Amino acid sequence: MPKFNKRTLAMMAIILDEEEENCHQKRRTTFVREMLIKRNQFGEYHTLFNDLQDDETSFYKYFRMSQHQFYVLLSKLDFQITKQNTTFREAISAKEKLMGCLR
Known about the structure:
The chain is mainly α. Helices cover 68% and strands 0% of the residues. This is Putative aromatic acid exporter C-terminal domain-containing protein.
């Protein structure tokens, strides 16, 4: 068995201690996934809904209801499904939630 002097043992102890600290450090995780951050640019609601509003027949085929019926239903549900924005993330609008639910 090799014999080490005090200086070598001290250096080995410091190195092992640093490695142990690095192993126990926790990685920071993000609360919002990357795909959800891009939802405002590439999401179905933001890319499709405006086009559907311009064409009543396409709107009816997509939702199986008229725009008037959609907005009446939205007005009845709006206060129940609306959330507030926080510092961590932007809330999904009631209109977007209704669109996802109906589809």
